[in-house]
Amino acid sequence: MVGLFTGVVRKGYAPGGHSVRNGPRRVAWFTVKRGRLEYRGRVTRQPFAEWCATKEGVDAIARVAKEIRFSFVGRRRSATRRLWRALHAASRTEGFCAAIKAEPDHFLQAIADICYADALPRTHVALGRVVLTPRALAMGRARAGVFARLMTAPALADVDDAVRTFLLDHLVVEMDAALSQASPVPRRPVLAKDGWVCIGVRLGTVWAEPLWAGPYGSGHLFMYEMPRRKLTRREYKALDAAIDEIAGSVSTLSRTARDAMLRAATLRRV
């Protein structure tokens, strides 16, 4: 399916934004402040360490280790350090920071653009559209955009190709996690673009086969075309009811029907 995220969840690394290991709570790369998704200013090592335990990480480390003739701490450990230092150094550059600070806007624009796909479930409240957006579609579009913008970015020129792929994948992971963890509701939305806001995130409903859709095969976002005026209490209640109604309607659909809806929405170009 064009434009959808593809990837497989590996043991020890969960691209849904959460570690599958027990341990201290990780420091997120992104957060939501005053309704806005923002980069926190640093790339932390824990996700990289988890990636190193995946097949992709093990292969990258082994490849770099072959280039090291001798190391007192072991070639594998030296290779891991070399990969991390290059990533960490790149993440501290002005060019990288500027690029990543701009990514939340691109991420939210990708989600807002999908709201115009007529195939998606929708209703109206206070003359604004309420649209259900599958994560499989939203995150797939967001991931494609990140790779198009940053894969050849000068700031990442000295970063190993496999590590660069991990980094770009994980940017989407972290933004998706920050949006979900903000727990947006109609009275406390997360601002998107073009007048749209996210008023809900619900996980669980399967939209696409996890084998190829990765961690985003389930769940959906609720987007609302927010009027410029302040909503009344009755309108907020109407939004809550609309979310429940739309969520209920898609949960009763067969997997085949949801897949067909997803494919129809995917065909819309923005």
Topology:
Layout: E1 30-33, E2 36-39, H1 46-51, H2 55-65, H3 75-91, H4 94-114, E3 122-125, E4 128-134, H5 135-150, H6 161-181, E5 190-191, E6 196-206, H7 210-213, E7 218-225, H8 233-251, H9 255-266
Helix pairs in contact: 2-3, 4-5, 5-6
Task: Note down, in words, how this protein is organized.
The protein has one domain. Helix content is 47%, strand content 15%. The chain is built from nine helices and seven strands, in the order E-E-H-H-H-H-E-E-H-H-E-E-H-E-H-H. Strand 3 and strand 4 (128-134) form a beta hairpin.
Short account of what is shown:
With 270 residues, this protein is α+β, with helices and mostly antiparallel strands. It has helices at 46-51, 55-65, 75-91, 94-114, 135-150, 161-181, 210-213, 233-251, 255-266; strands spanning 30-33, 36-39, 122-125, 128-134, 190-191, 196-206, 218-225.
SS-based class: alpha+beta
| Neighbour order of strands in the largest sheet | 3-4-7-6-5
Q: Figure out the total of helices.
A: 9
Could you give the order of the helices and strands? EEHHHHEEHHEEHEHH
The percentage of residues in β strands lies in 5-15%
Span between N and C termini?
16 Å
Helical residues, percent: 40-55%
The description of the largest β-sheet is: 5 strands, antiparallel
Count all strands and give the number: 7
